[in-house]
């Protein structure tokens, strides 16, 4: 089973993920063994914490891809970033300092883990109006997800995409994250599943266990497989989201953004 993982911290020494080349290579081997053919290197971008940008991410990704080729590890790396949702993101996307996923209109957007983001839906609206598609990372693991659950449903109906963590579905991140992941899956609003891998131990680049758990939860193996094959591929090909088969809960036409936010 060939899969695409669009969220990982495999690039060495750029954030809290892999800290050295050997760890990155072992992560790549684990990914390939799990059936992953393409893996996005998406280090954190969080001003004052992880001051990464397009230039240094691209340089590190090229270096790691060369090492993968030299060691005959059949994994294709693609570029991106896990972008913390703070002031100035849109402007930095527009001037090229922040990379989108594989140069597409899609980019990973990470809200605060601990507190609701002020004007969350207004910010989502601004990205969409500027022609970008924010892929909201791991909403199920945010501490404010359950109390503000409807905001994520609204964001998805507006046109944002939701990315759930494979290990959260299978229970690695605890009962609260698993419960929220199950709720999002059953409500039919999850676009993609990714690993958000950081290392080779507790957070490896493994999708298969989460995929199997998602199929057990939803009973819809076809749509779950779209979360790790078809929709990630649509992102890499920069397909207009209106041309992509949406999750079941979003198949019907969504209300206009203005109505959702009024």
TrEMBL record:
Keyword Chloroplast: no
Reactions that this protein is recorded to catalyse: O-phospho-L-tyrosyl-[protein] + H2O = L-tyrosyl-[protein] + phosphate
EC class name: hydrolase
Keyword entries, A-Z: Hydrolase
EC number of this enzyme: 3.1.3.48
SUPFAM superfamilies in the record: PHP domain-like
Top-rank lineage group of the source organism: Bacteria
Record-linked InterPro entries: Caps_polysacc_synth_CpsB/CapC, Pol/histidinol_Pase-like
Family named by the database record: Belongs to the metallo-dependent hydrolases superfamily. CpsB/CapC family.
Designated name of the protein: protein-tyrosine-phosphatase
Source organism of the structure: Thiothrix litoralis
């Amino acid at each position: 089973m060939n899969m695409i993982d669009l969220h990982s911290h495999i690039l060495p020494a750029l954030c809290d993920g892999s800290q050295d080349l050997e760890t990155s290579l072992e992560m790549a081997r684990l990914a390939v063994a799990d059936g992953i053919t393409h893996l996005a290197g998406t280090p954190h971008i969080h001003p004052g914490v992880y001051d990464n940008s397009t230039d240094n991410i691209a340089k590190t990704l090229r270096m790691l891809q060369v090492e993968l080729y030299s060691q005959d590890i059949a994994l294709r790396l693609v570029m991106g970033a896990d972008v913390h949702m703070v002031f100035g993101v849109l402007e930095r996307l527009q001037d090229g300092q922040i990379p989108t996923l594989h140069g597409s209109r899609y980019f990973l957007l990470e809200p605060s883990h601990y507190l609701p983001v002020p004007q969350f839906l207004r910010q989502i609206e601004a990205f969409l109006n500027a022609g970008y598609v924010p892929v909201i990372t791991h909403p199920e693991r945010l501490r404010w997800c359950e109390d503000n659950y409807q905001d994520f449903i609204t964001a998805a109906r507006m046109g944002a995409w939701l990315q759930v963590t494979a290990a959260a579905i299978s229970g690695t991140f605890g009962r609260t994250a698993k419960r929220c992941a199950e709720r999002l899956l059953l409500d039919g609003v999850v676009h993609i599943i990714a690993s958000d891998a950081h290392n080779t131990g507790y957070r490896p680049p493994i999708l298969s266990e989460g995929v199997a758990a998602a199929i057990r939860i939803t009973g819809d193996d076809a749509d779950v497989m779209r979360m790790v094959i078809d929709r990630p591929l649509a992102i890499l090909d920069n397909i207009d989201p209106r041309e992509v088969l949406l999750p079941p809960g979003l198949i019907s036409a969504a209300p206009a953004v203005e109505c959702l936010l009024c």
